[in-house]
Design a protein that fits this description.
Elements lengths: L6 H13 L7 H8 L4 H12 L7 H16 L6 H7 L6 E3 L3 H11 L10 E3 H4 L7 H9 L8 E4 L2 H9 L3 E5 L33 E3 L10 H4 L9
Parallel strand pairs: 1-2, 3-4, 4-5
Amino acid sequence: GTLVDSEPITTRVLVDFVEEFGLQLDHHEAIGWFAGRDMAGISKMIEKRLCRELPSDFVEQFRHRQAAALETDVRPIDGAVELLNAIRIPIALASNAPRAKIEINLRVSGLTGFFPDERVFSAYDIEIWKPEPDLFIHAARAIGFDPAKCLIVEDSPAGFEAAARAGAHVACFLPGSKNESGENEGSENEPGADPFSADSRILDGAASVHSISKLKELLPIIEGRSSRKVTN
């Protein structure tokens, strides 16, 4: 959700799907529940609300519907391409999503060229998901850097917690919160949705931005640190 506007699409698909099982969720509620979480955890949360188990192929069916929606609807976040073009330091992508979803998001949004395969990391590769810090630690070390010398951009509480526990600098991207004028500024698909709203304390000590283009102003934070690689 920090480079492509996938969270509203994924949440819409999930809300529509679970309604078929008798569970009605408000989109804002669902964003707060599910943003940045792994599907195993999401499935357990849904089962708890339903008080019964989901079908064994629930995740498979959801992934199929999700992929179809992303293929037609996913777009880059406004300013993402400009930001990536401006970055002159090593970057990587680390996501809780399976590689198939990452590939769709990058391909359909036209961002594949910014992230060669060796700079893309999925939690499914190591089978440890955010909010555990392992994915970020793994990604940083795989490209030769100490996590403490990295700036991680996150848009979910689970991701923020993982980045903080990894010892990295963290910037919270809040497209559904307030803009510089104090007005509500949501994504194109779902105005005003803010996964951090349930616990504002998670923002303590972190930089926050409401427009991806504003992240360019944070680049100097790590420009002087990025040349120091991990030595084993």
